[in-house]
Recover the amino acids of this structure.
């Protein structure tokens, strides 16, 4: 419990730094074309990160948690080499084709807005490379139960990036926002380097590396589809009035920030434990750990949402009311956050439920649920946007994510019931 509070405190400082970073951008620039370009420029690199490095952490942590010594170092080195090569190639391709894919992601932007987004996207690609490559170091620390150092490294990188932004934005303009995010990624990668040492020459024929690839394949194939969720949002909202993209992004990021605090403090420490229990087939202990973690996340999530409902609006008014944001824009931001209730609550539950599947070395089930749910979600988002504008996107997102969480919970509980031993009349277990 003490470690959970320490992690929550460190993660909270990191979230505050990231929030102040985005707050400073919006307050200094206002909710308009420039801030929209900043947030739109990071969408495709972020989607790729979510697909590749996000998937890797789900698969790699349970595998690394069950090995030690030379085998641990070999697995880390194999993944480090593979991910560095992969993100290097992806980064070069994105940089060379930025003039092609940016206009497709923001069709509603003006020509000058698209040009600015292209310029900022080139800078964001550098940050994508280091963030993706650094996912191996993060997984290595988590597998060793060294959550505090990993969280502290991330927090330090965020604070230094914020300092850079405050100094650079008044001097070089909007590009400082993109450079600051790339600097954060570089620093976070540098701070994670001790976790991957000693580095060895990759052996991609290694049996466990092949296992990682086998587990990743269905996950990446599925997530490459349903992780385009952000692209759908940006494409739709680019057709709305200028500034609404920034407000939608800001509401998502505030929830994502709070989600990260709770996940790092509560859900992430449960992953190695669940993986070890699954490997020993201790299914009753596995279920107790999963349900306890899920319950804590749900209670905390409900409490935080209640605070957003009241006095959330007045807090937002106090925080954002001193810059270029109008009171009507702050009220819209608050209403978007209220509409994101499903996104917030199921974002928490989905973390521990999907992680439980991954601890059982099952990547296909949550991926299939994600694909089906997102297909329904696209229709809900489009319909919601046509009916209610930006609020409709938030409502549609929450609706399909709720369906995903309910499906994962039902299948997981059913599978655990089958796996658990049944008590016989004589008291023995069968």
């Amino acid at each position: 419990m003490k470690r959970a509070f320490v992690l929550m405190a460190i993660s909270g400082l990191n979230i505050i730094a990231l929030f102040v970073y985005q707050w400073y951008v919006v307050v200094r620039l206002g909710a308009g074309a420039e801030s929209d370009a900043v947030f739109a420029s990071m969408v495709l690199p972020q989607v790729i990160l979510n697909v590749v490095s996000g998937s890797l952490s789900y698969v790699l942590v349970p595998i690394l948690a069950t090995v030690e010594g030379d085998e641990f170092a070999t697995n880390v080195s194999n993944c480090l080499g593979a991910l560095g090569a992969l993100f290097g190639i992806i980064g070069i391709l994105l940089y060379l084709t930025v003039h092609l894919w940016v206009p497709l992601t923001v069709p509603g932007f003006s020509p000058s807005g698209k040009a600015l987004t292209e310029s900022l996207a080139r800078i964001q690609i550098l940050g994508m490379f280091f963030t993706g490559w650094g996912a191996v170091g993060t997984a290595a620390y988590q597998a060793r139960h060294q959550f505090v150092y990993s969280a502290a490294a991330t927090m330090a990188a965020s604070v230094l990036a914020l300092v850079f932004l405050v100094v650079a934005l008044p001097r070089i303009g909007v590009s400082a926002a993109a450079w600051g995010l790339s600097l954060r990624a570089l620093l976070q990668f540098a701070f994670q380097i001790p976790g991957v040492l000693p580095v060895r020459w990759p052996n991609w024929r290694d049996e466990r590396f092949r296992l990682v690839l086998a587990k990743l394949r269905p996950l990446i194939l599925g997530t490459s589809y349903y992780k385009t969720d952000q692209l759908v949002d940006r494409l739709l909202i680019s057709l709305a009035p200028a500034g609404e993209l920034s407000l939608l992004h800001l509401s998502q990021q505030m929830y994502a920030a709070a989600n990260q605090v709770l996940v790092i403090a509560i859900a992430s420490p449960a992953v190695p434990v669940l993986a070890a229990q699954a490997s020993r087939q201790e299914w009753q202990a596995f279920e107790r750990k999963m349900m306890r973690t899920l319950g804590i996340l749900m209670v905390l999530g409900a409490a935080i949402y209640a605070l957003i409902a009241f006095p959330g609006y007045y807090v937002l008014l106090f925080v954002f009311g001193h810059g270029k944001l109008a009171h009507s824009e702050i009220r819209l931001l608050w209403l978007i956050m209220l509409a994101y209730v499903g996104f917030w609550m199921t974002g928490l539950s989905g973390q521990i439920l999907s992680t439980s599947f991954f601890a059982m070395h099952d990547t296909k089930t949550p991926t299939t649920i994600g694909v089906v749910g997102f297909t329904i979600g696209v229709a809900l988002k489009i319909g919601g946007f046509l009916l209610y504008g930006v609020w409709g996107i938030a409502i549609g997102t929450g609706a399909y994510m709720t369906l995903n969480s309910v499906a994962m919970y039902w299948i997981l509980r059913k599978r655990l019931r089958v796996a658990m031993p049944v008590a016989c009349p004589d008291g023995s277990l069968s």
